[in-house]
Design brief:
Elements (H helix, E strand, L loop, with lengths): L4 H8 L13 H16 L3 E12 L4 E12 L3 E8 L3 E5 L3 E6 L4 E6 H5 L15 H7 E8 L3 E8 L5 E8 L5 E8 L2 E12 L17 E4 L2
Parallel strand pairs: 6-12
Antiparallel strand pairs: 1-2, 1-11, 2-3, 3-4, 4-5, 5-6, 7-8, 8-9, 9-10, 10-11
């Protein structure tokens, strides 16, 4: 369950100003967040490819995950994971369905259970209901910049068990890549091939179980 959250996480970061905080670099971080907010206002739908690499510090193992994500405001997400195993993930802001064709199985859980579980970065995903809490639970600062990006740092205020560096395009103010450290893991995500305001049918985000598929409801 943990590995599929990151793609959804970075879509939510387009709306990062809803939990921005004032800090020592207030003017600079405010500039970045304000422009991210303005860019987000122009987006109703979004499609992006992603490559996610997970490094396990204790074993030096590496896993690579690739896929495509489609997002429709305010809370619909469809993720087509291509590798290492084909999966289709449907999120509507209330529940999440993970369909694995190879296993003829679909797992259904409440979205709240996923984002409030033991994998802290997922807790910053917000579709409205969580916005009031995020600003008091997380710090957001400007770490620095390179030629093409502003580098934004995000971390929880209390339980310091993870931190994220978000690389925001200076040109579009969209998140382009991120690096998350947590629980013996290092996760790097690259987002490419942005397409905004594409025509996405509502049925795309609804799971219709093929015949013979086992449905497992966790809640």
């Amino acid at each position: 369950m943990k590995k599929i959250i990151f793609a959804a996480l970075f879509v939510s970061c387009l709306c990062v100003p809803v939990f921005a905080q004032t800090n020592g670099d207030g003017k600079t971080i405010d500039y970045v967040l304000k422009n991210m907010e303005e860019a987000d206002k122009k987006i109703n739908t979004l499609e992006v490819d992603y490559v996610q690499e997970i490094f396990y510090n204790t074993t030096n193992e590496k896993q690579k995950i690739t896929g495509n994500l489609k997002y429709k405001k305010p809370s619909n997400i469809f993720i087509a994971q291509r590798t290492p195993q084909e999966q289709k993930i449907y999120i509507d802001g209330k529940k999440i369905t993970i369909y694995t064709p190879e296993n003829s199985q679909a797992v259904v859980d409440t979205w709240k259970n996923v984002v409030s579980g033991d994998f802290a970065p997922a807790s910053i995903i917000s579709f409205g209901s969580n916005r009031a809490n995020i600003s008091k639970d997380h710090d957001i600062i400007l770490i620095g910049e390179d030629d093409d990006h502003y580098i934004v740092g995000i971390s929880p205020k209390s339980k310091k068990d993870w931190d994220m560096k978000l690389f925001v395009s200076k040109k579009t103010f969209y998140p382009q890549k991120a690096s998350v450290s947590t629980d013996g893991l290092l996760i790097n995500v690259d987002l490419t091939q942005y397409k905004t305001n594409v025509d996405l049918k509502k049925d795309l985000f609804k799971f219709n179980a093929p015949e013979g598929v086992e449905i497992i409801k966790l809640n």
